[in-house]
Write a structure and sequence with these properties.
Elements lengths: L7 H6 L7 E2 L2 E2 L1 E2 L10 H14 L9 H21 L7 E4 L2 H16 L5 E5 L8 H10 L2 E5 L9 H7 L4 E7 L11 H10 L3 E5 L11 H4 L3 E5 L10 E5 L1 H6 L10 E3 L6 E2 L13 H15 L3 H20 L4 E4 L8 E6 L4 H10 L2 E2 L1 E3 L4 H6 L5 E5 L6 H18 L1
Helix pairs in contact: 2-10, 3-10, 4-5, 12-14
The protein binds 4'-deoxy-4'-aminopyridoxal-5'-phosphate.
The site of 4'-deoxy-4'-aminopyridoxal-5'-phosphate has 13 residues, from helix 4.
Length: 409
């Protein structure tokens, strides 16, 4: 944290994509929950790699390979510090949150979820943290059980406690809901589950860009996230795990890099983290993610959090006075996403009319169909905020909604 004077204009200037017209109007980007925009330093880090030292990592006999390997492994150290991981070997590269969860489901799940046992997930999980467990359940004759929600759209804590029976082997929870923006009480829930010997996975896809993560304080067994939601590139993500668990897990994919010795008599595997990183990795993705973490570390976290909280409060307050607007989800602590409906208008029509005015939102089920069924709706309009948004963006959204009403109602 270097700069205490949070200056939104100089921050926005670091994101070149924001400075453009879309459909004849200045872009208002309210879709950061789907993917965040990238600062120039991340774009530069990727360009520098390709223009200056493109090379495959590890085992190279030349200087470019050394340089690439140093940058690649330095990024792992940066992620380890970012998560407050005891060791950098506990940070494994994946393609994203989705692949990280699938890795755990395949590798850990195969040997830890016997027939008839239960995997608990909240009803507001993203499909990425439902479907891998369902596939595993199908293979094993196990069950995926949803934790119900309160009418506010929060995870029902009493129902959760009651569901913690001896046959529960896994709890998978999102740190922040991508559809509703609710911050879930993961530390408390993980502690309750751990006290009963249940393995826990926290999906941090929507949390990492909004607050400090401390896996040791959370006490979870696995923590997963995607680089592209943290100002980094697509195609790179992280699986963090407890060292003993990762050491005991079999490889997820076989190939080069993940082995120690190979022969037709038998193959032995590499140690952490390489045991889980078969083949040439996403080198530029890792280097870009390292640059994204440098960028995050350069921010005044307190000032940024205050800015984001101010924007969310402003958005919630303005929404309350719009006739026909129904807010979906009323979590006490909400970051990033704000979902709503406009009476008499289909979300996708609203999204289209906003786009015509240069305003980017997302509409639909947001990969949370069970949550939508729970709320008895098919989808929402979702405006999602990041550090580079302004009150002016929110004013433009509401002006855009008034235009949408004129067209649609
Ligand atoms: N979990 C949550 C909460 C998400 O918001 C997302 C992305 N929408 C995912 C998982 C999946 O992330 P990715 O597509 O980057 O793998």
């Amino acid at each position: 944290m270097s700069d205490n004077s949070f200056n939104i204009e100089s921050l926005r200037a670091q994101f070149p994509i924001l400075n453009q017209q879309v459909n004849g109007a200045p872009l208002v980007y309210l879709d950061s929950a789907a993917t965040t925009q990238k600062p120039q330093c991340v774009i530069d880090a990727i360009t520098d790699y390709y223009t200056g030292y493109n090379s495959n990592v590890h085992r190279g006999a030349h200087s470019l390979a050394d340089k690439a390997t140093i940058a690649f492994e330095a990024a792992r150290e940066k992620v380890a510090k970012f998560l407050n991981s005891p060791k950098s070997e506990q940070v494994l590269w994946t393609r994203g949150t989705t692949e990280a969860i699938n890795l755990v489901a395949h590798s850990w799940g195969n040997s830890h979820i016997p027939e008839g046992e239960v995997m608990l997930v909240s009803a507001l999980e993203n499909h990425a943290s439902i479907v891998p467990w369902q596939i595993l359940a199908e293979q094993k004759g196990a069950k995926v059980v949803p934790i119900p929600l309160t009418p506010n759209g929060d995870i029902d804590q009493n129902a959760f406690t009651e569901l913690l029976t001896p046959n529960v082997k896994l709890l998978a929870l999102s740190h922040v809901s991508n559809a509703l923006g609710s911050v879930n009480p993961v530390a408390k829930m993980v502690a309750e589950a751990k006290a009963k010997g249940i393995t826990t996975l926290v999906d941090g896809a929507q949390a990492v860009a909004h607050f400090t993560i401390d896996v040791q304080a959370l006490g979870c067994d696995f923590y997963v996230f995607s680089g592209h939601k943290l100002f980094g590139p697509t195609g790179i993500g992280v699986l963090w795990g407890q060292e003993a668990l990762l050491n005991a897990m079999p490889p997820y994919q076989g190939g080069g890099e993940m082995i120690d010795t190979v022969s037709f008599e038998g193959t032995t595997f590499n140690g952490l983290p390489f045991k889980f990183e078969a083949g040439t990795p996403h080198i530029e993705g890792v280097i870009g993610l390292g640059a994204a973490i440098d960028f995050v570390n350069s921010l005044d976290h307190k000032a940024v959090a205050q800015h984001e909280a101010d924007l969310m409060a402003y958005l919630i307050d303005k929404a309350a006075s719009v006739e026909g607007l129904t807010r979906i989800g009323h979590a006490e602590h909400q970051v990033g996403a704000f979902s709503f409906l406009l009476e008499g208008a289909h979300p996708s029509d609203v999204g289209m009319i906003l786009d015509q005015q240069g305003i980017a939102v997302r509409t639909g089920h947001h990969c949370t169909q069970p949550l939508m069924s729970y709320l008895n709706i098919t989808g929402t309009i979702r405006a999602s905020l990041s550090i580079y948004n302004t009150r002016d963006d929110i004013d433009r959204l509401f002006a855009g909604l008034e235009k949408a009403k004129l067209f649609l109602l």
